[in-house]
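Comment on the following before class.
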Amino acid sequence: MKYKIIRTIVISFIITGFVSCHSAKVKDVDGNSYNTITIGNQIWLKENLKVTRFNDGTPIPLVRDNDSWITQTGPAYCWYANDSANKDIYGALYNFHTVDSKKLCPTGWHVPDQADWYELVNIIGDVTVTGDKLKEAGTSHWKSPNNGADNKFGFTALPAGYRSFNGSFNYMWIAAYWWSSSISIQSTAYFWYMRYNLSFIDKLIAEKNNGFSVRCIKDKPVVRENKRCEAFSVLTPLSLLVTRQSR
């Protein structure tokens, strides 16, 4: 019994340390500020990206009309229904060419690839309820009933909908879609989605000129010996071990 109590204290200290060390806000090149959330050993933006320039300052084309969206072969973004009032809550919708630039997220962050998404699912531990654990609870933004959603991990997934490759806007309040940076085949890439009436998160592939949301994830640091971050080189493997044992 004594051993169990001590182990619980150590684990709580490690998890608390991760959260407190990464609670600062992050700004993009436009000056938009984002809250962050630590889930396992990953650090995510807690909000959808809404930047209008690449992190080198280059503007991303804002494409409103359907014909231009359909024929776009380079980066582009838009606001759902071409209404900038959707920016602050739901963020922007980007085509995959924007994601593929590798310059969309703030410096030190990146668009998650398939390995990042799978790791998130594995941290939560049960793919059948991953959506519920990541979705914002209630019906302030999600369509009713959104049963089971409790946002246990603080990801605060919101139903921003998407823009189809044909230019139409679909499923705001109903579903959330996020790009993965991983390409499926030459003309398609992976994305992950949740719905108001489903408890799980799933992945599919889509044409690259669809417009989906983006959640950035922080680059994992390279831990070097004899540096001040050495304490984390000891704590991190233990926290990962706890994660693995709990699956």
Q: What stands out?
A: Residues 1-22, 224-247 have pLDDT under 50 and may be disordered. Helices lie at 2-21, 66-71, 87-90, 96-99, 114-124, 130-134, 230-246. Residues 41 and 240 are 7 Å apart (CA to CA).
